[in-house]
Amino acid sequence: MTGPDTNGVGESSGSQEGARRDLKILCYIPAYNAAATIPSVIDRIPASMMEKIDEILVVDNASEDNTHLVSKGYAQEKGIKNLKVHRSEVNGGYGGSQKVGYRYAIDNGFDVVVMLHGDGQYAPEKMEDLLEPIYQGKADHVFGSRMTGDPRGGGMPLHRFLGNKFLTGAENLILGWNLSEYHSGYRIYTTECLKKIPFEKCTGEYHFDSEILVQVRMAGLRVVERTIPTFYGSEKCYVPLVKYGFDVLRTMRAYLLHTWGIKSCHYLEFAGVKPPKAVPSVCM
Ligand SMILES: Nc1nc2c(ncn2[C@@H]2O[C@H](COP(=O)(O)OP(=O)(O)OP(=O)(O)O)[C@@H](O)[C@H]2O)c(=O)[nH]1
Ligand SMILES: [Mg+2]
User: Fold this and answer.
1) Is the CB of 117 under 6 A from ligand 1?
2) How confident is the model at residue 237 (pLDDT cuts 50, 70, 90)?
3) Which residue out of 66, 100, 115, 117 has the highest number of ligand 1 atoms within 8 Å of its CB and is therefore the one to mutate?
4) What are phi and psi of 189, to 5 degrees?
5) Which of 103, 133, 204, 253 is in the most buried spot, having the most CB atoms within 10 Å?
6) What is the dihedral of CA 192, 196, 200, 203, to 10 degrees?
7) What is the pLDDT of residue 239?
8) What does residue 208 show for φ and ψ, rounded to 5 degrees?
C-alpha cells in the first residue's frame, strides 16, 4: 500500500459497504479531436475488462475532426457491438462532456461509470485495478492518482508537477481530505454517488473535476485513490493552465464561503451549509 495514511479518522457516512461483482459498467470516453487516439484507447482495454464492460459510450464533443466516424468505424471493424457514439453538436467543454456521460449512466441503469480519456493519457490497462474498491464496496468514487506513482518519470512537466502539488495542498487543507492529487482525469463514480450530487450544476469547463469533488465532499461520500502511471505524450494540451489554477482556487473559496455561511454556492446548496465530518481518502 502506498500513499496517505488514514489516521483512523471517521467512518464513512456515505454508502454502505458490501462486495458486489455483478456491476453494470459503463465505460465513458470523453473525446475531442481524438480521431488519432480513440482506436488505440479502445484497443488497449484488456479483454478480461471488455467482458465486464456492459457498454462503451464515446462522447464526441463537437470535434472538428472525424472522431465520431472513426469511433463508429473502429467498433464495426472490430465487432464491438456494445460501443455507442454520442456526438454533441455544440462543444460543451470537458465538464459538459462529463455531464452527458454521467447522465447517460444514471438514466440507463448502470451501477458504475468509468471515465477513460480519449487521448490515451490514462492507461486502459489499469481499469480493472481501479474498479476493485468499487467491487469491494469500499468506495463511492475512485480516483486514479499519478502522484503516488512516478509523475515526473512519466513526463509530467515540472511546472505542472509543482502546480499540482500546490493546488492539492490547498485543497486538502480546505476540504480536510488527504488526497495525493485532485487533478487526474482517471475517475470512477458509482451512479449511487452521482445521484446524490447535482453534478449538472457544475461548470462545463475543466474545473468541473474540482467542483464535483467538492460536492462529493459535501455529500460525505467515500473516495479511494489508486496509483496510476503518468503519461504525457505528443497530445495537444488544451487546458489554459493559469486560468485552471485560479478556477480551482475559486472553487475552494466558494466552498469556504458556503460552509462559513457567508455566501451560498449554488452547486453546494443540496447539502446544506455544514459539511459532514471528512471521510478520509484511502489509497488501496
Ligand atoms: N480539450 C477538450 N477536451 C475534451 C472536450 N470534451 C472532451 N474532451 C476530452 O477530454 C479529455 C481531457 O481533455 P484534455 O484537454 O486532454 O485535458 P487533460 O487531460 O485534463 O489535460 P492535459 O494534461 O493537458 O492533457 C480528452 O480525452 C479530450 O479528448 C473539450 O471540449 N475540450
Ligand atoms: Mg489530456
Assistant:
1) yes
2) confident
3) 117
4) -125, 145
5) 133
6) -110
7) 85
8) -50, -45
Residue 231 CB: number of other CB atoms within 10 A? 16
Classify 257 as helix, strand or coil: helix
Q: Check if 120 has its Cβ closer than 6 Å to any atom of ligand 1.
A: no
Type of residue found at 134: I
- Domains delineated in the chain: 25-232+239-264+276-283 (3.90.550.10)
Q: β-strands 187-190, 141-145: how paired?
A: antiparallel
Please tell me the distance from the alpha carbon of residue 160 to that of residue 240, in angstroms, as a whole number: 12
Whole-model pTM: value is 0.93
- 217 three-state secondary structure: helix
CA of 117 to the centre of ligand 1 (A): 7
* Residue located via cell numbers 463537437: 62
- Best probe residue, ligand 1, of 94, 164, 205 (max atoms within 8 Å of C-beta): 94
Q: What is the atom index within ligand 1 of the atom nearest the CA of 59? A: 7
Question: Which whole number is the average pLDDT over 147-171?
Answer: 96
Q: Give helix then strand counts, H and E, for the chain.
A: 9, 8
The answer, yes or no, to whether any atom of ligand 1 lies below 6 A from the CB of 151, is no
Taking residue 135's Cβ as centre, other Cβ atoms within 10 Å add up to: 16
